Structures are given as C-alpha cells and as structure tokens.
Amino acid sequence: MACKTVRAIARRNEEEGLQSALSEKPRPGQPRRLTAGQSQRIIALVCGPPPAGQARWSVRLIAEEAVKRKLVTEVGRETIRILLRRHDLKPWREKNVVRGGTG
Question: How many whole angstroms separate alpha carbon 32 and alpha carbon 22?
Fold first, then answer.
C-alpha cells in the first residue's frame, strides 16, 4: 500500500472515525447501463438457443436480439461483453445442439 493511501486512511480515521476509514465511499462514474432485471433477462436469453439460422450467440447477435425482443430499448456490444464476462459466459464457444430423446 502506498504511503499516500495510508495517510489518506489515517486522515479519514481522525476526521470521520474508524468506520469511515475502513469503508470506501461511493466512487463517481457513470450509472450502470442495465438494471438488474434487464441483465437477468439477457442472461436468460443467452442461456437459450440462438435464433433460427444461427449456430451460436455472438455479442452482436445478443445486443440485436435484446432490442428486438424489447428487453432493453438500446444496448451496446461492450455492455453485453461486460455482462457476459461478469457471469463467465462464452456462448460463442459452444454450439447449441438440440438432441431428441431416445425412445
């Protein structure tokens, strides 16, 4: 840990107390692009079979289908890529095969 960080924590402890020094304040930045519900619906979409005529899901196809199915009004490929990475999903690596039951 850098000296600057240690000094900042010590200063926060003196000024605001121990609990404040041990926890981080919210950081500035852009709000999330997808709500939790939208993320869940997109993940469910990816876990299902790709559209007819497609062997696999691609990031671009997921973004297009999410808008087409009105899961979101708009979404970029990078947002989809980050969502998939966060859930350790790689749908482009697996071909979805429907297997009939044996009788």
Answer: 25
Give the alpha-carbon dihedral of 60, 64, 69, 73, to 10 degrees.
110
83 and 39 Cβ atoms separated by less than 8 Å: yes
Confidence of residue 93 (pLDDT cuts 50, 70, 90): confident
Q: Which amino acid makes up residue 12?
A: R
Mean pLDDT of the chain: 86
29: which 2 tokens?
């930045």
Q: Model-level pTM greater than 0.85? A: no
What's the rounded Cα separation, in Å, for the pair 28 and 1?
22
Element (H, E) at 25: none
Structure tokens at 48: 């299902």
